[in-house]
Amino acid sequence: MYRHLESRLAQHIRDFLRRTYKLELERIVIEQPPNVQFGEYALPLAFELAKKLRKAPRKIAEEIVGGIGAVEGFENFEVAGAGYINARVNRAALALAVAKNEEPKTDVPSGKILVEHTSINPNKAAHIGHLRNAILGDTFVRLLQFAGRKVDVQNYIDNTGVQVADVVVGFQHLEKKSAADVERLASQPRFDYYCWDLYARASQWYEQNPENKKIRLRTLHEIEQGGNETAALAETISTAVLRRHLETMDRLDIEYDFLPRESEILHLHFWDAAFEKLKAAGVLYFENESKNKGCWVMRRAGTSKPLTAENAEINQNAENSVSEEDQKVIVRSNGTVGYVGKDIAYHMWKFGLLGKDFGYRRFFLYPNGHQCWISSVQGEPDHPHFGDVAEIYNVIDARQSEAQNAVIEALRGLGFNDAADHYTHFSYEMVALTPRCAAELGYELSEDERARPYIEVSGRKGFGVKADDLIDKLIASAKKEVDSRHAELDDSEREKIAKQIAIGALRYFMLKFTKQSVIAFDFKEALSFEGETGPYAQYAVVRATNIFRKGRMDATSFSAEGIDFKRFLMPAVEERPLQGRVNHVSSTDAVLKGPLLHEADELWELWLAASKTGFIVDQCIATTEPAYLAKHVFQLAQLFNTFYHRHPILAEADEQKKKFLLATAAVVRRELIRALQVMGIESPPAM
RNA sequence: GGGCGCGUAGCUCAAACGGAUAGAGCAUCAGAUUUCUAAUCUGAGGGUUGCAGGUUCAAUUCCUGCCGCGCCUACCA
């Protein structure tokens, strides 16, 4: 509801400016006042207009307030401070709409969106860094779906790269295992853990003897080529590890629609098709000189003006002026293509610009019946259509932004500006370990490392926290708490609740940090169920649920019919302000601090927060920042807990008031459950 | 060297396009439970927003320089 009132307000302001000053503003800035008593919206636009209109801001604000007229849903407008315009909504009307769960329809673009996330090399167990990726990606998918968008979820599988080759080398040369041996191991429960260790061992083995690296290279070539024993072994390993990753992510309610694999990009010759187009457009050129002699290169992104088909010729002529540092090698001198090249081809496919398609095969059936598909050279006849989308989001960590930019530049160079404009690198920072955490894991720290704020996880060194280990730990910890609190429940019920709490804690933890912040992982914080955590919000829901259970009522169908919202949400003139909150008013700063908070204001804060879910979701999407939703959930839960503590609802003697308080609890409960759902967090029945 | 990002309370983090008093959690200390279970709540202390300039009515936010830190900068993926 909140966002609709906001856009209505913006429209009225726009009309007024046009009518009165003949002004068109690109954007009407609307803020949220620091205190609910200032109103629900604040407009600083008089400051901005002061220069243009050569008038004092306060004067302009007064003119706007005087001339804007009535706006549906709003009570009044008033000038504050040096020229703010504060808008007050009709509290009772908004509350009624929220109580009735009314959310006016908005126009939703029809185009399909593709979100790619997770994309773990299928050669070892997933770790906490991968969890951050998958949780961010999955939450973003839920945000888009909440907003009514159609979304395909893809998880790109690099099954032919060196990382898989390393594990193949480990099995073949370090462990001397036969194909049958590996098959047997691959069917073991946590095969990915086995590979985790083997991968680290193989990496060390290369350091021992330069000859060993030649074996790696040969292995890699055999895998890329396909149709041999080594490639078959790689397929066995990568498929088994991939299944493990899907299982791990399924524990967190993260699912995928399609798994495109690099092996198909190779074998279906996606690259060949892309290569021809890139050459023709002049995006790639053959280097005859210097270090990169014999390679097909492109100009490194950001070193000069974007490439376009029109100025390709200029680039050709200017190629000598491009230093080798500014070149990105796409095709090596031995004729093989690097991963950026494959990525370009893959992204042309995403936008339906390649003229080729994958084969599709059923791969993984989720317990809920959802079918996940995988790429295949020879597909099944009946399959859904993936790719050919309007917008894409790639959830890939910040370290790869240069490669992502190269792909975008290539699309532009090919003249696909529309695609490039709808290509979003959903960039986020890594999860690292605090030195203390590293020490807890038994890792020997150097002097240098101890002094750092955090230490990067390394799959090669086998250094990191495995995703399943962390989930297990969280569940065990939650189970202990549930056991001690709910002896009356069956063990299976307690187990289920423990899982919900564990996942709530984990998902919230990964979402509460903004994307560009490096998470310095620490067990103590990640395992916390108190304060700003998922379980805190889940607990608020449980509290609300308990009120209705105890009162033998249904929270989901609680009717707000006949409630006099005005009576409870508008402070009465004679009402005394609340003690204990917000309140240290001296005579000098009384104007800044505003009047004291009344009970009605405090209740209104809660209703107002409950009306903002759709508004926050929009903001999360526009900024690709799910952390705002986490903050909103926490704020709502916090306000509810204060409310819960202040009002013993079931003991309320005034029947009218009791009904209003119940409606408050029902609405907040509904919005908390809804917002948590968007974060992929379930609300347990008891805690 | 170049590119990207970061520096805010003891610690971990917030602060929508520049806006009203820089906010939370943890930790510390002092309190709250005959009640809808305290995984909760109330309160206290804790800040020259790395440093120095600049732009602006207004700067944690934008610009410049410096200091410190991280990542990227392979014919690896």
Description:
This protein has 687 residues and is α/β, with parallel strands linked by helices. The chain is built from 28 helices and 16 strands. 51% of the residues lie in helices and 10% in strands. A four-stranded parallel β-sheet has the order 5-4-12-13, with helices on both faces. It binds one RNA strand of 77 nucleotides through α2, β9, α14, α15 and α22.
What layout of secondary structure does this protein have?
Blueprint: H1 2-21, E1 41-43, H2 45-53, H3 57-67, E2 74-80, E3 84-89, H4 91-99, E4 113-116, H5 128-146, E5 151-154, H6 162-174, H7 179-186, H8 191-208, H9 210-225, H10 229-251, E6 258-259, H11 262-267, H12 270-280, E7 285-286, E8 296-299, H13 312-318, E9 327-331, H14 339-350, E10 359-365, E11 371-376, E12 391-397, H15 401-413, H16 417-421, E13 423-428, E14 431-433, H17 435-440, H18 447-451, E15 455-456, H19 467-485, H20 491-512, E16 519-521, H21 523-526, H22 534-550, H23 565-569, H24 590-593, H25 599-610, H26 613-623, H27 627-646, H28 655-678
Parallel strand pairs: 4-5, 4-12, 6-11, 12-13, 14-16
Antiparallel strand pairs: 1-3, 2-3, 7-8, 8-9, 10-11, 14-15
Helix pairs in contact: 2-3, 4-25, 5-26, 6-8, 6-9, 6-10, 7-10, 8-9, 9-10, 12-14, 14-15, 19-20, 22-27, 22-28, 25-27, 25-28, 26-27, 27-28
The protein binds one RNA strand of 77 nucleotides through helix 2, strand 9, helix 14, helix 15 and helix 22.
